[in-house]
Write a structure and sequence with these properties.
This protein has 229 residues and is of the alpha/beta class. It has one domain: Rossmann fold. Helices cover 38% and strands 19% of the residues. Strands 3-2-1-4-5-7-6 form a seven-stranded mixed β-sheet, with helices on both faces. α3 (54-67) runs parallel beside α4 and α7 (153-160) runs parallel beside α8. The longest helix has 14 residues, at 54-67. It starts with 19 loop residues before the first helix and ends with a strand.
């Protein structure tokens, strides 16, 4: 993959793919999405430096789910239910968002928040390794959403892509990894994670069975639509 040559070592935490002023403007446009539960979940994330997709990406994935009339969603990595909130609004009571997280406390928090939003009935939350839980399912999904440990991104793509129905979506968060994938000199959070994300991105864009786009908002979101023909 061709990368931008960096004349000096860059601190990747300050690489903002979208100018902060533009993102602030965009947030102003989606203020109508305010809900007390969202405000609480976002405050908790800020207090504990817990990674969530945030309001702009939340609205984005909600609209994607509406576009494909999503009823069956699988989340590889759910935290305490922030991304599930947006999907659960769309699938309705006759749909299902399968959530996964390795921490039972996150399940408890998700139940508290999503129950307050009257969305818990649309969710099936499993505690454990997302990939192992996915292997226990056998249906096709309208959306597979990937937000697990970044070193596992290529493997998750490989196992999820054939379980997405034609016209369905694969969505992955953090695919710009705070700019690390775009520069030669970077300091990784965990050794190998940047390379894994870069490999993941190339695999998807090179797959002829999918139409793929990368939205640079926040930390980058890949959306890959499985072709119908």
């Amino acid at each position: 993959m061709t990368k931008i040559q960096s004349p000096t070592t860059i601190n990747p935490t300050v690489i903002a793919p979208v100018d902060p002023a533009i993102e602030n403007y965009m947030r102003g446009l989606v203020r109508h999405t305010d809900h007390p539960v969202l405000v609480e979940m976002e405050a908790l994330a800020k207090q504990h430096n817990f990674p969530i997709i945030g309001r702009l990406v939340g609205v984005f994935i909600e609209n994607l789910a509406k576009m494909v009339n999503a009823k069956q969603v699988f989340e590889f990595g759910s935290g305490y239910g922030y991304s599930a909130y947006w999907f659960a609004k769309v699938v309705g009571q006759d749909g299902r968002v399968v959530c996964t997280d390795g921490d039972s406390l996150n399940k408890d928090k998700a139940e508290q928040y999503l129950s307050s939003a009257k969305l818990w009935g649309n969710v099936e939350f499993h505690v454990g390794i997302a990939q192992e839980i996915f292997k226990q399912t056998n249906e096709m999904f309208d959306i597979c959403y990937n937000d697990v440990d970044k070193g596992d991104y290529p493997a998750v793509w490989q196992m999820a892509k054939d379980r997405i129905r034609p016209g369905g979506l694969y969505i992955a968060d953090n695919v710009l990894w705070h700019g690390r994938v775009a520069v030669d000199d970077f300091v990784d959070v965990v050794p190998g994670w940047t390379e894994a994300i870069a490999e993941h991105n190339q695999l998807i864009f090179n797959d002829p069975a999918f139409d793929t786009f990368l939205n640079p908002t926040r930390d980058g979101v890949i959306v890959a639509r499985r072709k119908t023909v």
